[in-house]
Amino acid sequence: MRAADRLALSAPIDAPDVPTVEIAAPTRRDEARSALAAAAALREEGVPVRDIAVVARDLDPYEEPLFRAALQYDVAPVFWTQFRVTRTRPYALVESVCEALSGDVADRETLLRPLELRWSPGGSGGAPTPSGSADSETPSGDWPIEPRAVHRTREALPDGPRPLPEWIESIESTEDADDRVRRFAEWLDAAPAPEPSSVASLLGEAVDGYADRGLPETKAADSPALLDTETDARAVVRVRTLVRQLRRKLADRLDAGTLERLWGDVAELVGEIATQRPGRREHSNARALDVFEANDVWALEVPYVIAVGLTAEEWPKPPRSVLPPEFREAVLRGEGTTGSLAPQPAWVGGRDRDQFVDALRAAGRCVVLTRHTRTPGGEDAARSPLLDHLDTRRVAEESRRRLVGADRGLPPELRAVVADEPRGTRGSPEGDRE
What we know:
The protein folds into two domains: 218 residues, 3-Layer(aba) Sandwich (Rossmann fold); 188 residues. A seven-stranded parallel β-sheet has the order 3-4-2-5-6-1-7. It is elongated and about 75 Å long. It has 15 helices and seven strands. The N terminus and C terminus are likely disordered. It is α/β, with parallel strands linked by helices.
């Protein structure tokens, strides 16, 4: 590899053929508001929502502020991102059941954790008891158990680990313990040894119970956009698939002798399958604003691209390596004996650079580049070095404030782009994709 080729990973970026507008805001939340306000203002100027896309290098820190800003500006966002099932309640429920079964004894917290995650009995179990036969505030037939009932039971039960049969006796002899906790403890105590079929049956029952009774709880407490409900429902589908995969993989591991018939090993296998994260959230909402991660825009074609997070700490992400910076620089230069060593693209932000170029190329009319100038800790957030390759039209702070204000006027830099657009190419703000 020639020295010039080593540095080609960070070669200059060809400026796009469309205007680039730069908006700087004080905080990440202000930046998200600016990005969504720009999208809303473009719609009001007659740009169809299908002609606008928001792009982030990493959506994790931006999904929540973008979603809040979307509600403020009456925009329905659609987040196209890998579905992280391990961060959902249905997955945590399956994991907690495995943990409760993974030892000879369990402490109070481990025992009650599945109930906190809305465990409910499978099948038709859960019909209300006759009025007056139980506490009217928390009838023993209602599922899932209310958080206050779980808390009251936790306070009433003795501390310290003990086997499930002893927990059942303690629950039966404790006046303030909810009887539904006893039923759950008996369900755990009756759990068979972890064979492929029994594991699939037991965990499948827990997921079905959540789908029947836990999911409606999420919907009842959700916002009008039902984002949490959509995530919860998607998680139920994914965890059901995970349980089916678990049955096959557990059988293979037991046959190969690489796994023991222990619930602790089952929990580890569940985590191994779940972290493969094959699923994505998919929508066909013609009235929604698409929000992508940068690795998904390489084949995208859309008139207006709004790219967020153009700071030195976000895009490109600073390289993390155990090798000293001086050594990495020497390898990139190919000096002396380091000339025989191959550099890592991550050292010069090669992947981030390519994804930034993809975002620029995706835009047919204009690219809006946003960034924040302060970190949550109040420190300065430096401008991304990727922007140094472009001749951007910078929006003044006064124009940005007007954009996010009640009037929501487009900044002059962006209004000029819309004004130059041929009228015949614009549709209605609510244009669909049919």
